[in-house]
Amino acid sequence: MNGNITLVEKEKEPNIYIKAMELGYRANDGISYVNMKELLEGVFSIKFSRAREYTFLIWFLENFKNETFDRVIDSELRYFVSDYANNKNTPRLINLKSQLSSKFYINGYTVKQYIDYLELTEARQQAQKSQIASEKALVKAKQSIWIAAGGLLISVGISLYMHLTSPTPPFDVNILQDHTTPNTPEVIQTIPENIPEIDSIKVDAPSQTKKRVQN
């Protein structure tokens, strides 16, 4: 990758006023204009042109308070800023530079603006997260519907296949005949019908009187 930075790769410069409010909000012990400008240039890579610093310095002196500058009326303040931006070596500029090195404190109205900005940013981020979560849930729902529809089609296809391939009544029954011959002929014995019962046969015992006569 070459060392050149395209417009797409270059990080967008942050808002100078939002970063100034952030620095002032965090500086509980106050912050000077000189220190703030150094932080904006060094940490956030914000570049100051003459016209830009003139506008920013007026905004800074209106939103950050110092007891010395509180006694300066708006018309004189603009002269001070004009001398500073044009780098005029005037007594007013010397006085202004010394005052800009002292500490300033962010005023209450500017603090409220910064807090409103933070709340709006957080709400926007939450809305974006909710939208992303909703889109993911919608995608999963669509996937579930397609899976259910696919399972239903497969079930219907299996049922249709079983219906078409199963036999229909009256069922065809094939009787298989046994063509094998036995190795030995079958012997059929008949039992005579008129067989006397054993109880009906009487056996006469030899007569004892006949023996006595013979003796």
What does this structure look like?
This protein has 215 residues and is mainly α. The protein has a domain at 16-106. It is 57% helix and 4% strand. The chain is built from seven helices and three strands; from the N terminus they run αβααβααβαα. The protein has helices spanning 16-26, 33-42, 50-63, 74-85, 91-100, 108-165, 208-214, and strands at 31-32, 64-65, 103-106. Strands 1-3-2 form a three-stranded antiparallel beta sheet. The longest helix is centred in the middle third of the chain and has 58 residues, at 108-165. It is rod-shaped. Mean pLDDT is 75; it is low at 1-10 and 209-215.
Topology at a glance:
Elements: H1 16-26, E1 31-32, H2 33-42, H3 50-63, E2 64-65, H4 74-85, H5 91-100, E3 103-106, H6 108-165, H7 208-214
Antiparallel strand pairs: 1-3, 2-3
Helix pairs in contact: 3-4, 4-5
Which structural class do the helices and strands define?
mainly alpha
Which sheet architecture does the biggest sheet show?
3 strands, antiparallel
Proportion in helices? 55-70%
What's the order of the H and E elements?
A: HEHHEHHEHH
Overall mean pLDDT score? 75
Low-pLDDT segments, ≥5 res: 1-10, 209-215
- Beta-strand portion reads under 5%
Number of helix segments?
A: 7
> What does the overall shape look like?
rod-shaped
Tally of DSSP β-strands: 3
Q: What is the CA-based Rg, rounded?
A: 58 Å
